[in-house]
Automatic annotation (TrEMBL):
Protein's name in the database: Uncharacterized protein
Entries under Pfam families matching the protein: DUF4469 (PF14734), HU-DNA_bdg (PF14848)
Segments forming domain Bvu-2165-like IHF-HU-like DNA-binding: 1-74
CDD domains: Bvu_2165_C_like (cd12843)
Species for this entry: marine sediment metagenome
Lineage: unclassified sequences, metagenomes, ecological metagenomes
Domain DUF4469: 94-177
């Protein structure tokens, strides 16, 4: 095995960095093998050939170009894979039930509910957009229609009569018209005791 230790390698790298910095400060270009080329440069706009360096308008910087070896290796050996774009969707972070005072737990019919999250706003004129309670067992949907606040970060509404059972909570919306309908679902399941006296 190699007798070169990690401290040895770090010491060599530190010496190389110091030598590179010294050369750049003296105005030289530095070739680091086939890895890269570093060079000093000035950023900013000069107003004609008689203009001089002004620290308020110009600054000294370092530029870099990939080395020929690295560039050739990547050009010849790299493979390209198409990655599917993640489509944005409503993000439901929490459901607050005013009737019970609980968060992400209980649905109280006839009381105010609030959803906090991101990308929540929907178009109430579109029949398939909005807020839905979906019964876990039967898949029956209860669409909410009495919306008091419809904003990207918060939805506030009057909870309708929701039969007893466990439910998912979903928000469905489009981010452009016309566009694909996007659905976001609260991670937690919610429980409804049903209507009072029912």
């Amino acid at each position: 095995g190699s007798t070169v230790t990690k401290p040895d390698i770090l010491a060599v790298l530190e010496d190389a960095i110091k030598a590179t910095e010294s050369c750049l400060l003296d105005g030289y270009r530095v070739q680091l093998g086939g890895l890269c080329e570093l060079f000093p440069r000035i950023k900013g706009v000069f107003n004609g050939i008689t203009d001089t360096f002004d620290a308020s308008r110009h600054r000294v910087d370092v530029g870099a170009n990939p080395g020929g070896r690295v560039r050739k290796t990547v050009r010849v050996g790299a493979t390209v894979t198409k990655v599917e774009t993640i489509k944005p969707a409503p993000a439901l972070l929490e459901y607050v039930d005013l009737g019970s005072g609980e968060t992400n737990g209980t649905i109280t019919s006839g009381n105010i509910g609030t959803i906090n999250g991101h990308r929540l706003k929907f178009n109430p004129e579109q029949d398939d957009e909005g807020i839905y309670f979906i019964n876990i067992d039967s898949a029956a949907e209860v669409k909410l229609t009495a919306i008091q606040r419809n904003k990207p970060g918060q939805l506030v509404f009057l909870t309708p009569s929701v039969p007893g059972g466990q439910y998912y909570l979903e928000v469905r919306t489009r981010f452009r018209e016309p566009a694909e309908l996007r659905t976001g679902r609260l991670d937690e399941m919610l429980e409804s005791a049903g209507t009072a006296g029912g």
